[in-house]
Amino acid sequence: MAASDQKLAIVILISGNGSNLQAIMDAIDHGELPATIRAVISSRQNAYGLQRAVTAGIPTEVLKHEDYLDRKTYDHALQTRIDHYQPGLIVLAGFMRMLSANFVSHYAGRLLNVHPSLLPAFTGLNTHQRAIDAGAKEHGASIHVVTEELDAGPVIIQARIPVSGDDSTETLAAKIKQLEHRIYPLVIRWFAERRIHIQEDSVVFDGKPLTGPLDYPSIKKATR
Ligand code: GAR
């Protein structure tokens, strides 16, 4: 098999529902994403995403923070488990833990995250309520490179929706998850196709350095 025919090996880290994991599994099943999920690792035993992975026949592991002395020890154990699967890309999909600098630098160039806001707006938690409280006219989802600083790495793509007066945390969460389910498999596909290269703190897409986030859906139409 030629190197270009080989599928991208990924490990997906989750903490909860795993709807993004499901979207990635579905994209693979539909032949839209030349990747194989080597393992799903959860920080929580009761994460529903684990069941999704088991149903799909994907190996699962659980690493609970309570079983480790501190962040450094946890991250080291996590790194050991991830490296066991030799992934080309590590996908954070609702993995609700901060990661230490050593961990992040070990995976430099191959660590992605999905965040439910139009970064740099609303890093951290409770993004939907904070967008409502701030009177934001638009809200959305970002796929970004993970760097040492929380939710601060280069943003590859964003998808946005208008916020209306009727919106609640729940309606925004549901709408934004739908966007995430489109843009995350797309970015992973570009990574698998080697259209995206991550270099230190910058991203090259189709041979050109990104000067800002790509905008979905216009980029999807332009690059189909
Ligand atoms: C997603 O909305 C994702 O953006 C968010 O957690 C949710 C996981 O949903 N991630 C973060 O807030 C990370 N800072 P899922 O488990 O259904 O994929």
Describe this protein with a few key phrases.
three-stranded antiparallel sheet, 224 residues, 25% strand, eight-stranded mixed sheet, Rossmann fold, binds glycinamide ribonucleotide, alpha/beta, single chain
Write the layout of secondary structure elements.
Layout: E1 8-14, H1 19-29, E2 35-42, H2 48-55, E3 60-62, H3 71-84, E4 89-92, H4 101-106, E5 111-115, H5 127-133, E6 138-145, E7 155-162, H6 169-192, E8 196-199, E9 202-205, E10 208-209, E11 214-216, H7 218-223
Parallel strand pairs: 1-2, 1-4, 2-3, 4-5, 7-11
Antiparallel strand pairs: 5-6, 6-7, 8-9, 9-10
This protein binds glycinamide ribonucleotide (GAR).
Count the E strands.
11
The CATH topology is: Rossmann fold
Largest sheet: 8 strands, mixed
Tell me the name of the CATH homologous superfamily. Formyl transferase, N-terminal domain
Round the Cα radius of gyration to an integer and report it. 17 Å
Judged by helices, strands and strand pairing, the structural class is: alpha/beta
Portion in beta strands: 25-35%
Order of helices and strands: EHEHEHEHEHEEHEEEEH
Largest beta sheet: what is the strand line-up? 3-2-1-4-5-6-7-11
Bound molecules: glycinamide ribonucleotide
- The CATH architecture category equals 3-Layer(aba) Sandwich
